[in-house]
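Lecture 7 notes: from sequence to structure.

We start with a single chain of 288 residues. Read the sequence below before looking at the structure.
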Amino acid sequence: MVKWFLIAVLAALQMMAGSAATADERVTLGWGRIFTNDQIGDGKDRWRTGSYTVSRVRGPSWQGHAGHGFGDILELRGHAGVIAPSNLTTPAANDRRYAGVLSFELHTHFGWQEAEVGLGAELALTGPRSGIGGFQKWFHNQAGMVPPSAAVLDAQIGNRLHPGLNAEIGRTYGLGDALRLRPFAEARLGLESLVRVGGDLTIGRFGQGGLLLRDVTTGQRYRGIEGTRSEGFSGAVTAEKDRYRLRAGLQWQGKRASAFYGVSYLSREFVQQPEGQLVGALSLNLRF
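Now the structure, written as tokens:
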């Protein structure tokens, strides 16, 4: 029953994405992308080992969250991720199974009272049909890295379609000209069902006047709509409760390019996991 309800919600949102905006025709307002990998974190290849996310944001215009209602601003998101045991050749019996995830999502971002709200639906595919395991094996072979063995890929989470819903609500408080605090709460139902409560502390002008999106793997925020382009560096740190995430990031803005690098500490996600891990996140934007 829940599955068919989620599919119906996703279909309704997709129809909304294809329709015209209330007042004006939708245009592309921005692109967001973020790459995460533990090789640029703790240098190891395990567990939450890698992901890549691309977002396209469309709407009639961007006037901040407060200037838009439900369905005005739409984000189409594609996500590919790899979850792996700590040993890609002969994993321990009590380690987590390999999982390749390919998902397509639709979100809407709007204002409610004085809060910033994001609601979304997704369809995620796991298993060999996602192509993620085959891609990682090919890439590791090309790069001279240890590829996942046949035994690991044969034991991966099987082919299955996972519909899901997610929601986030937060409110930004200005603590000065270049300091902002944003407490938030997030709930996800589907491939992973969980609740996150935390806060984003931004030092500098990163994301000011724009739309920031949240990476599902690390919780790092990345720009979907550019907003203010003040050259220089910005730093952002976030502490969350629920699986415990501690994040730090640095944003550089130039005249025609910007770059973000962040490091996230992810606490243990399953009982047998001996320790947490560090995952790096990288986002590059070039303007030609």
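The two ends are 49 Å apart (CA to CA). Keep this in mind for problem set 3.
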